[in-house]
Amino acid sequence: MKKVIFICIVMCVNFSYAQGVGKFRGGIETGFPYYEEFIPIPNLLAMELKYNFQKNMNVGLKTEATIFSTCKCYDLELLSISATYDYYFHYKNSIFSPFIGTGLGCYFARGHEEHTETHFKYNNPTGFVRVGFEIWKIRTSFTYNLIRKPKKYNSRNVDYMSFTIGFYIGVGKWKKKLVSLQHQMEKNGN
Q1: How confident is the model at residue 141, as a pLDDT?
Q2: Who has greater pLDDT, 123 or 149?
Q3: Residue 156 sits in which domain range?
Q4: Any idea what the CATH number is for the domain that residue 57 is in?
Q5: Are residues 14 and 42 in the same domain?
Q6: Quick one: which of 79, 98, 101 has its CA closest to 90?
Q7: Are the C-beta atoms of 175 and 18 separated by less than 8 Å?
Q8: DSSP state of 153
Q9: Are residues 64 and 7 in the same domain?
Q10: What is the pTM of this model?
C-alpha cells in the first residue's frame, strides 16, 4: 500500500511540475494596453490554452479582449482570437524561463464615437509578437499587436503594445529531477 501511495504522489508531482511533451496548460492574464497614452487601469483580459509539443516549445489558442480610446471622442473595443507559438529559453532546473512568441489570427472591433452615437463594426486579420518570462506559475509579457483598419474607414492603424501579468494552471515548472526520481524508482524495482 505504501508503494502505491508513493507512486501516486510522484505521479501527481510530475503532472504538476514537469514541463512535459504532450501536456496541456491554460493561462489567464490581465494587463495594460498602450496606445499613444498609458492607461493605469487594467483593462485587458487574455485567456490561452497551450499544448507542449516539445520540451521548450508549445502552440496554443489565445483570446484577448480590451478597450481603449484612440482619441478623445472615439472608443475602440477589440476581441482577438489567435493561434500562438512560444519558444522557451530555460536552463536545466531553473524556475525562471524567458520566452519569445508570436501569433496569427483575427480581430473583431467595435467603435463608438461620442456625441454622434455612431457605432460601427469590422474585423481583419491580426498578428502579434511577444517577449516575456515565467517564474514558477506566474507569467509576464510585453506584446506588440498589429491591428490594421479596413480601407473603407480611411483611418490609421491602431497597433498597440500591452504589458500583461497572469498565471497558468496545468504543467508548469521546468523540473527534470522529479522525472528522474520516478525513473530511479522503476530502475530499483520499487
Answers
A1: 96
A2: 123
A3: 23-168
A4: 2.40.160.20
A5: no
A6: 98
A7: yes
A8: G
A9: no
A10: 0.74
